[in-house]
Amino acid sequence: MSVSEDRGRRGGVPAPDAPGAGGARHWLARLNPAAKLLAALLLGLGLVPAVDAVTGGVVLAGVLLVLPFSGIDRHTLLVLGGPFLLMGLSSGLVNYLYGEHGAEGALGAAVRLLAIALPGLLAAVSSDPTEMADGLVQRLRVPERPAMGVLAALRLIPLLADQWRTVTLARRARGLEAGRNPVRMVTLFFGRLFALLVRSIRTGTLLATAMDARAFGTGPRTWARESRWRVGDTLLLAGAALLLAGAYALSARLGTLVLLFS
After folding, report:
1. Which of the four, 97, 177, 236, 258, has the lowest number of CB atoms within 10 Å?
2. DSSP string of 160-172?
3. pLDDT 10s digits, 25-34
4. Tell me: the pLDDT tens digits for 12-51?
5. How far apart are CA 69 and CA 66, in angstroms?
6. Helix, coil or strand: residue 50
7. CA angle 14, 18, 22 (to 5 degrees)
C-alpha cells in the first residue's frame, strides 16, 4: 500500500492523489478544503437567525444530497456523526420539555443544529489534513501556528483511537472489568477518559515543543505544495449561497419562517 493510499484510508476518504480519488463520483473530496470550510461557515452563520424547521430542513436535505459524493465511508460517518445526532435529539427533547413552541420548536431546534454541524463535519472529514493546512494558510490567510495545530489535531485522531484501545486493554489485563454492573461501567469509562486526556496533554506538549523548535510563527515560510483555487471551489460557494437563499425563500413562502429575535 502506498503512502497516499494509507493516508486516504486513515482519513475515511480517499486522498486526492490516491487511486479512485479522481473519479467524478467523489468530486467533493477533490475540492479545495478552504472552499469547503467557507461553504460550511456560510451555511452555519446563515442558519443562526432562523429557528424554524423548514429553513434548517431544506439546508440539511441539500447537504445530505451531497453526502454520497464526499467519499466518506459509512463506518466513519456513523462514528463521527453519531455524537452530533445525539446532540440534535437531546436539543429537541429539551426544547420540547421546556420550550414555548412545543413539538414544532423542538423539531426546529434539532434540525437547525444538525444543519449547522453536518457541513463542517463534511468539510473536515472529506479533506486531506495536509491540504487543509495549506488551504488555511495560503487561501484564508490563517496564521501558521493555529493552522499547524489543526493539521496536528487531524493527524492525531487515529492515534487517539489507538491509545484508547491500548488503555482499555491495559486495564482489562489488570483485572479492571465492569461485568454487568452499570455503575462500575461508568466509573471505568471516566477512568479511561482521564487516562486518554493525560496522554493527549503529553502529546500536545511534545508537538508544541517541536513546533517552537522549527520556528513556526516567527516569520514567513515557504510551502512545498500550492493550494489551488479552481472553478469548482467557486461553484461550491455559489451553491451554498443559493441553497441558503432558497431555504429562506421557501420558508417565507410557506409562512413558516421564524427568526430568532422576532
Report:
1. 97
2. HHHHHHHHHHHHH
3. 788 989 999 9
4. 454 444 434 445 678 898 999 999 999 999 999 999 999 8
5. 6
6. strand
7. 80
DSSP calls for 45-94:
HHTSSB-SHHHHHHHHHHHHHHGGGS---HHHHHHHHHHHHHHHHHHHHH
Q: How far is CA 70 from CA 25, 36, 64, 119, in A?
A: 8, 11, 10, 11
The pTM is what? 0.75
**How far apart, in whole angstroms, are the C-alpha atoms of residue 47 and residue 120?**
13
Q: What is the dihedral of CA 59, 248, 48, 92, to 10 degrees?
A: -60
Query: How far, in whole angstroms, is CA 151 from its chain's centroid?
Result: 13
Q: What percent of the chain has pLDDT over 90?
A: 27
| Cell numbers describing residue 158 | 487515529
Cell of 75: 463506518
For the chain, give every domain's residue range: 32-141+225-257, 144-216
pLDDT in tens, 199-239: 888 887 887 788 778 776 666 777 778 889 999 999 999 99
Q: What is the pLDDT of residue 217?
A: 64
The whole-angstrom separation of Cα 185 and Cα 194 is 14
Cα separation, 150 vs 135, in Å, equals 11
pLDDT digits (tens, 9 = 90+) for 123-132: 988 888 889 8
57-96 per-residue burial string, b: 16 or more CB within 10 A, e: under 16: bbbbebbeebeebbbbeeeebeebbeebeeebeebbeebb
Sole residue written with cell 516567527: 218
**Count of other CB atoms within 10 angstroms of residue 99:** 15
Q: In the beta sheet, which residues pair with residue 259?
A: 50
